[in-house]
Automatic annotation (TrEMBL), chain A:
Predominant place of localization: membrane
Gene3D superfamilies: MetI-like
Listed name of the protein: Glucose/mannose transport system permease protein
Membrane topology summary: Multi-pass membrane protein
Residue intervals of the ABC transmembrane type-1 domain: 94-309
Phosphoprotein recorded as keyword: no
Residues annotated as signal peptide: none
TrEMBL record, chain B:
Pfam families xrefs: BPD_transp_1
Record flagged with keyword Membrane: yes
Transmembrane segments: 23-45, 97-116, 128-154, 174-197, 218-239, 282-304
Taxonomic classification: Bacteria, Pseudomonadati, Pseudomonadota, Alphaproteobacteria, Hyphomicrobiales
Gene3D superfamilies assigned to the protein according to its UniProt record, in alphabetical order: MetI-like (1.10.3720.10)
PROSITE patterns, sorted: ABC_TM1
Sequence similarity: Belongs to the binding-protein-dependent transport system permease family.
Cellular compartments annotated: Cell membrane
Presence of keyword Cell membrane: no
Residue ranges of domain ABC transmembrane type-1 in the record: 91-299
Keywords: Membrane, Transmembrane, Transmembrane helix, Transport
Name of the protein this chain belongs to: Glucose/mannose transport system permease protein
Its membrane topology: Multi-pass membrane protein
Length: 317, 314
């Protein structure tokens, strides 16, 4: 880029600075390549989180306002947390989160492990069965929601079918019932994710040293003892990974509630993610929406940060 | 898990028990396979039935006179909001969004992974950790600022249009979504490539450096040719995630012509006007599911591997 103006005298130093500049550029190249991604992450993830946090301390309604007015949004959320009769939207959202999170993670782990153990018994046709359990994971929550909405509809789906088969007293209208609608979200969610958990456990089972199992069998351990005392404890890291994946999927769940229940009767199927969306974009309570987003983030962080910290420390050692 | 047996009678008894066990195991596996397949089966069957048959027949029975009508209608005629031109336009919208977003985020992820493993600097773990954490944030915590920024990009686009006659993509919802998906996909793509390159022999890179190869030369000649498996994993993972996204799509392109497929499908299904055509809804859902299902069928192994890598360890 630069032109040489005084050739005679400054030739040597100029060349040396130029090469050093060039080599310095070479040295910095990796950082220059990484920098855009890192800056993007800093701005669009961390900067935006701070921005959202800031908004939660203002009294933003339809449009953002940037005058700090204190923690009113959090105070309101806190008050709503205990408003159970009639339940506030926030109370409904967090109790639903509790029910959904507990059942979704618990059933997925249980069912996933169960299927993995069954599949690990030298099954013929494993190659056919595995993809059948796993394919729901490839579908969007919207498609899953549409399919299950139809399947669980009392007038069209399962109930109607069983009536036609002669079981006329069968009654299953959870999807229209405000007290039970969240359980239909659990059903569809488990259907979608349990196959994936199965695949994780299966990979874990295949990684266990066969010698350990043989030794235990020679010692006279029954199959159930073998699994309870030896294999399942060995799978602890898989439990942890699966828990992390499921927990963050549970907290992020938004689409499934929308597609399956459209929020349920009177918003009775809401999760905090739906609460955030509705309050921010539909009810013009931007500060409250932001505060709920921050609470969601804190909840996930409490699970993820220690996990990532231990993972990365382990790796860099 | 072979049983260890000594005497003849024990062998016979344990054979009987074994037979019983096998039957139970296969029975359970078959039962669950049916349960998992049921919703897809119902969706598929319903999409080939006439409305008459749906209202009077059984959900599980095969269509008596299969018709492609619902598929044709879903693709080209059904109403999404107020426009009744089918979902085909939205299908293309999704494709136009997915392809660039996948390509850009994959390339950036590959470069990041390369730097973070083979050109380490002080603090590389912190940088990686911060990018990794971005994978797990609930997107609600960035939704609103992003909307504000995209809004001002749109206003900038209008200014540009007034000045030059072109908007250069500023404010175009598809471009916006590409941007959003690249930004929030970076953590995942970086994670995939970093973990893959971590196991790649550093000696090869060192040797090439001694031979005078530069940063990009090593990347192009040594890293990339050996990265096919992780590229496939990353592309599939990103493709599935971006195609299936609903939150960003509904927040930033929730109305009008440029809706992606997921939002359009939700509008078709949850529309409250007129008679609900379940067969058309199911056909639309099948069309929306087709690309990711196809990827899954063709490359299931890589699909699973990507999901596992998403669990950090796997």
């Amino acid at each position: 880029m630069s032109t040489v103006t005084t050739p005679e005298i400054s030739l040597t130093p100029e060349r040396s600075t130029r090469t050093s500049l060039r080599s310095r550029l070479q040295d910095a190249l990796p950082k220059i390549v990484l920098a855009p991604s890192f800056v993007i992450t800093l701005v669009f993830v961390y900067g935006f989180i701070i921005w959202t946090g800031y908004l939660s301390f203002t009294n933003s309604k339809t449009f953002p306002s940037y005058a700090i007015t204190g923690a009113r949004a959090y105070q309101r959320l806190w008050r709503w947390t205990f408003e159970s009769d009639p339940p506030s939207s926030w109370y409904t959202s967090i109790t639903n989160m509790g029910i959904f999170g507990f059942l979704y993670i618990g059933i997925c782990l249980g069912l996933g492990l169960f299927l993995a153990i069954l599949l690990d018994q030298k099954i013929r046709g494993e190659g056919l069965l595995r993809p059948i359990y796993l394919y729901p994971m490839a579908l969007s929550f919207i498609v899953t929601g549409v399919a299950w909405k139809w399947f669980l509809d009392p007038g069209l789906g399962l109930e109607q079918t069983l009536h036609q088969w002669g079981w006329t007293s069968f009654h299953f209208d959870w999807i229209k019932n405000k007290d039970f609608v969240i359980y239909t979200v659990v059903i569809a969610g488990v259907w979608q994710a349990s196959g994936f958990v199965m695949a994780m456990f299966l990979a874990g089972l295949r990684g266990i040293d066969g010698e350990i199992m043989k030794a235990a069998q020679i010692d006279g351990a029954t199959t159930i003892q073998l699994y309870r005392r030896i294999i399942i404890p060995l799978l602890r890291p898989v439990f942890l990974s699966a828990f992390i994946v499921l927990a963050h999927m549970a907290i992020k769940s938004y689409d499934l509630v929308v597609a399956l229940t459209s929020g349920g009767p009177g918003g009775s199927a809401w999760l905090p993610s739906n609460f955030m969306y509705e309050y921010t974009f539909k009810r013009n309570e931007m500060a409250v929406g932001s505060a709920s987003a921050i609470i969601m983030l804190m909840t996930i962080s409490a699970i993820i940060v220690p996990y990532l910290y231990s993972e990365l420390r382990e790796k860099s050692r | 898990m072979s049983a260890i047996v000594s005497s003849g009678t024990a062998a016979r008894r344990s054979n009987g028990a074994r037979m019983f066990n096998r039957v139970v195991i296969y029975g359970l596996l078959a039962f669950f396979a049916i349960v998992y397949l049921m919703p897809l089966f119902v969706m598929l069957v319903t999409s080939f039935k006439t409305m008459d048959e749906i209202q009077n027949g059984n959900m599980l029975s095969l269509p008596s006179a299969p018709t492609f009508e619902p598929w044709v209608k879903a693709w080209g005629e059904t109403c999404v909001g107020l426009t009744c031109a089918g979902i085909k336009g939205y299908f293309w919208n999704s494709l136009k969004m997915v392809i660039p977003a996948v390509l850009i985020s994959t390339i950036l992820g590959a470069l990041n992974g390369y730097v973070l493993t083979k050109w380490r600097f002080r603090g590389h773990t912190l940088v990686f950790g911060m990018m990794l954490f971005a994978c797990f944030i609930p997107f609600q915590s960035v939704l609103l600022p992003m909307a504000t920024i995209l809004g001002s990009l749109g206003r900038f686009g209008i200014t540009l249009q007034n000045a030059t006659g072109f908007r250069f993509g500023f404010g175009n919802p598809t471009v916006n979504l590409v941007l959003v998906h690249v930004i929030y996909g970076l953590g995942f793509t970086t994670l995939f490539f970093r973990n893959f390159y971590e196991a790649f022999p550093t000696e090869l890179v060192k040797a090439a450096q001694v031979d005078g190869a530069g940063f990009f030369q090593i990347f192009r000649r040594i890293m990339l040719p050996n990265s096919l498996p992780i590229i496939v994993v990353t592309v599939i993972y990103q493709f599935t995630n971006i195609w299936n996204d609903f939150l960003f799509a509904s927040a930033y392109a929730g109305t009008g012509e440029s809706m992606p497929m997921t939002v359009a499908l939700n509008n078709v299904v949850n529309t409250s006007t007129g008679v609900v055509e379940y067969n058309v809804n199911m056909a639309a859902a099948m069309i929306a599911a087709m690309p990711t299902l196809l990827v899954y069928v063709l490359a299931g192994r890589y699909f699973v591997r990507g999901l596992m890598a998403g669990a950090v360890k796997g």
